[in-house]
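Action item from last week, closing it out:
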Amino acid sequence: MHNKIKIERAILNITQDELAQKIGVSRQTINSIEANRYVPSTVLALKLSKLFKKPVNDFFELSEDD
């Protein structure tokens, strides 16, 4: 899975820590998601969708090996 969380975070001009606080996770979780080391739960993806005001598919997409 690929994601554009870092780009969406930059659009909002917020740090990893600020994003983490807004959705109730650690900064390390945000870092792991951005680095494609962690696939977020459905609940976490929906929280990001609400915060970014965009559908989940706008910032997460499947890769060829998914």
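Closing note: Helices lie at 5-12, 16-23, 27-34, 42-52.
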